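Our preliminary data section would be incomplete without showing what the modeling component actually yields. Below, a chain of 192 amino acids is followed by its predicted structure, encoded as tokens that our downstream tools consume directly.
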Amino acid sequence: MSEQPESRETPENEAQESPSPEEQEAAAAAGEADRVQELEALAEERRDQALRAQAELENQRRRFERELENAHKYAMEKFASEMLEVCDSLEMGLQAARESQDVDRVIEGVDLTLKNLHKVFDKFGIQAEEPTGERFDPERHQAMSMQEDPEQPPNTVVATMQKGYMLQDRVLRPAMVMVSKAPSSPGIDENA
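Predicted structure:
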């Protein structure tokens, strides 16, 4: 008989090649545990990112609210600083009027102050409106009375009692005006 090596595998070799069902379950459980750990770490990272983003949004909201509050609070700062010069001129003019009997100097001082005020108005887009002779516009004018005027077409401003003012295209104060109306026809005497 010739000796042939046995081709049978030993039980040790079989165990190394195909794991037992218990070992497979343990390996699967270990793999799942690793996967759960990875997912938990990813979830924690995403949670941290979400919290940071939320905190950043909250900080931006607070910053925006603070800037908006300051914009409202100090919106008039430039206009107010320009008006200080007009106020100074009025105070000096009043003091000069009290000390001097020269009416011409007082008139000159008031005139210069008024020019200064108009310069400030122009700088900030405030225009005076004196609509005498224009068609009545209820959005820009306030009719104080109506008067028959055969020389003017109806609904024409015949007199301005107080100037109106516009800021850019918005009415600050409507002009107070007197408006023309059509002359009434003479009454027909029915008894005649």
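The longest strand covers residues 141-148. Strands lie at 126-129, 141-148, 157-162, 164-167, 170-173, 175-181. Preliminary results of this kind motivate Aim 1 of the renewal.
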